[in-house]
Amino acid sequence: MSETLERWGSKRAFILAVTGAAVGLGNIWRFPYVAGENGGAAFLLIYVAFVLLLGIPVMMAEILIGRAGRRGPMQALSKLAVDAGASRHWRWLGLFGAFTVFCILSFYSVVSGWSIEFLVASINGDFDGASAAEIGAGFEAFLANPGLLIFNHSLFLFMTMTVVAAGVAKGLERLNNLLMPLLYGLLLLLAGYATTTDGFGTALSWLFLPSFGDVTASVVLHAMGHAFFTLAVGACALMAYGAYMPDEQSLPKAAFAVAMLDISVALLAGIAIFSVVFAQGMDPADGPGLMFVTLPIAFSELPWGAFWLSVFFLLLLLATWTSAINLAEPMVATLQGLGWRRSVSTAVVALSVWLLGLLSAFSFSTLADVRPLFGRNVFELVSSIPPDIFLPLGGLLIAVFAAWVMPREQVVQALGVGESGYVLWRNIVRWVSIPLTFIVLLGGLL
Ligand code: TRP
Prior knowledge:
The protein is an all-alpha fold. The chain has helices at residues 11-22, 25-37, 41-69, 73-83, 92-123, 132-143, 146-166, 169-194, 200-208, 217-231, 237-242, 251-279, 290-300, 305-337, 342-362, 378-382, 385-405, 408-415, 418-445. Helix 1 packs across helix 14, helix 5 packs across helix 7 and helix 8 runs antiparallel to helix 14. The longest helix has 33 residues, at 305-337. The mean pLDDT is 90.
């Protein structure tokens, strides 16, 4: 791989690229259902605290490693470790990240496929006049049809890997520029509509009035995992993007801006979705189908509902697309770093992710009761263990590397905030982020 990579066109382009990675299914699909299963407001509060205390500082650590190394994750870690007089074995962290995103992308692609199906269905007007019960039953029937799930999974993965094969920077910039404001606007509209429903008051108190009685070690672990997942931190995927970061940009500002955007997208989606949940007397703990059932109901009440629903699924699809491209990048970069051609690396990654994804697709029918570990089927496993355990573990090691192993001057330069900003960041990472992640991981595992 060449030593000087291409750069993002501008500071704004870098922020948009990272936002594109961050905003995706995590905000609109995963946040509501995981919050729903973990008690609502207390989960939200803990997750926001983790974004501030762990997510943002570790995101900075991850990006600065990429920026200082200016290479793919494994090579960057290896070079920086050797420069710092530390062991080259740090490079295996890059491989662990690649393995983590491999698991994540396999189910991410299947669920993104659901958006394709729903986009087509909403364009066809399939939801027109359908009742909540009919929409719910339709979703169940869809999940029970593995052929359809696999078709959409294949289509989505193909879309993703084509962009990855071409190299990330160019196409992504333009897409993100357009997509983010549109998606945000539509979510605002939906949240505005939510204020007019009967469920709005209940949704607000459910989301914002915590009852700490329900907080267990497992709720805290899920909240931490979700903070990493939604920010795209902990798998060296942002490290890969940091390698293309412009020299003069301030990293903390960028990380903070992305995190705020990311949280607000989740909140808007949460308000819209839970208002419908409560207005319709549904169960917030309904699991992965929550968004796919509530939003068609919400839109069907709006004037021009079918049109807005199609627009929504289109934007969601584009948002998950930019996230999936980010998920694929560290794997492709790793194989490329081993000397493989980009086209071959992309093909191998695509095929492997596709195969693992098949197991997730079958987890809603044929393989629903095949539960290899912890009583969970494959979909439940890959959508919980890598986000909740692997990402925090990867993030922990990334933080240790940036805050304890890398030499001071190098970090000061890569952070781009001067001495005092550096000291503040380092103290937070050393004495808050690292111990906190460690304790929550340990507590959750025991
Ligand atoms: N953050 C994305 C979402 O919320 C998912 C994602 C993209 C991700 N890139 C990642 C998660 C890297 C972990 C690591 O949908």
